[in-house]
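User: Can you write out an input/output pair for a complex, sequences first and structure second?

Assistant: Here is one pair. Inputs:
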Amino acid sequence: MTTETLDRDDTIVDQRRSTRDVWMPRIVAGVLVIAALLWVAASNGFGPTTGAALMPVLGTAAIYAVAATGLNLQFGHGGLLNFGFVAFMAIGGYTTVILIPHIQGPQSEEFPGLVPLGVAVIVSMLIASLLGLLFAVPAIKLRSDYLAIVMIAVAEIIRLVLKNVEPLSGGVYGMLGYSGALQDLRPDFIRTLAKQLNVQAFQLWIVIVSVIALVICSVGIALLLKSPWGKLLRAVRDDEDAVRSLGKNPTTIKLQTLMIGGAIGGLGGSLLAFQLSQINPDVFLPQVTFFVFTVVIIGGMGTTWGPAVGGIVFWVLLTQSGAFISEHVGNNSAASALRYILVGVLMLVIITFRPQGLLGKKEDIVLDLK
Amino acid sequence: MSSTSSDLQHAIEIRGLTKSFGGFQAVNVDELRVPSVGVTALIGPNGAGKTTLFDMISGFVQPTSGTILFDGNDVTTQPAETRARAGLVRTFQLTRVFDRMTVMENMLIGAMPDEHFHLVRSVLTPRWSLRRERETRERAQELLELVRLAPVADLYARSLSGGQKKLLEFARAMMSSPRMLLLDEPMAGVNPTVRERMITLIRDYVALGNGVLFVEHDLPRVMQLADTVVVLDRGAVIASGTPAEITADDDVITAYMGGAR
């Protein structure tokens, strides 16, 4: 055979990504994260309260990033449009709290713990993924947009059930007094470190736990996606019928993705419960799903560290703009709604000018909105 | 079938197969057998029901009535992926490649056996899974060289030309060495060079003892490539036989030329 000659119509688009294409998004993302954190510091005049102000921001950002890692697996890598992601978080958060010592309900009844915290968290992740499976089975064979609609309903059903099954969930009064379970596990050096940083030890501990959870989830999913299973997931996202024609069952893959993403969402819910130190059904409003979506889209769908970057940028913008608005515009509810408009504008800007998000590759865009 | 010899093995046997969309009967095939070795062409005018029949054989469309046997087993209600695992692998008229994966990755998805794709294996024995994947990579590389896509193996499939995508889909379907390859218009929109290459590949594949069933509009190519030709018109088989027999058949000429009936 002669040397490879390509046909005249076989034009190839050169896809080799230049070093600039690889590094520029990373640099921009890094600059944005630093700018976001500096914004928080600046609003505290870089004074001694800076650390204390950064803690809740970093904690919540990391927790949203953990949840976003789960949604990113489902939506960014798997193309599963899940508009009820908060359901996994609610189930995860509630299950963990129910299993450990807590106070709940209108009479502030004390409940003893059933299992150690570690077991509680693992059980909560399992239950979150199993309930995801239960609700997704009827919808998963349908098109992605139907899954989205079914999952919105599932999330609302779960929230309303939690609101009304008072013996189990404490109803609208929710549950509190459970934070000790996590703080009891805090090593001593955290207190020393917290003192040096001039922050509260319990807050620093939640931040550290959340960041560790985020790193484990991000790296774990990155490894999973490099495996043959991960390749098959991307194939399912691209073309289910082609996958079927090659003898693989896309439904199995989609259910597995929904379950793994759901378990991570459950972990995010548990962490959120500890960050807030009390939960009630309205912690898990439908808007939380869209917060997590925003985090995924800002950071970049189908990326490893997109959720982490998106979490910080999103949460700082939401909270800091709130502070800015109440200072300069007014302290009424209309003014505070402005911050959601700002986040919406950021979403529009990203989807219009950089649909792959801060860290994403253009080739990986899931929804081609243009 | 013109051939009634009992020594001829049939991979696919269809009996009383119908498909109706509302009041319209798209397919109504009393009997059709596809030899397990050799090239069988399915031809017919537009709207004759070729693709619907194809979809029913591969499991993407459920028939209204009738049975489909593959290697003697009733596969009528089996899902498409089960049939593919049994060795009945198809391609699509509108090429379906995994756009956001590289050409090589596209190939790897076609591999069978496929235990290394299982989630449990990928999590618990990642090294084994990756090693198995590397093994299938060798076959993928061979096939890509065969269809001369090896130079573009690392490009995203979406950047290939239409003809290259047809070749990729064809090579990907061959990854599992299926005993029966169903090709839906493999040469549509493909330039003459690529077309000749495909004809060679199909002939070589059949020479190894496999079967190919394909739908095609390009009659000169059909006559050149096929051992058996089945003509479909208005959902029914109106003729079948060797290319020479078919070209002499009045019914076929009428169906194609649109004679008044």
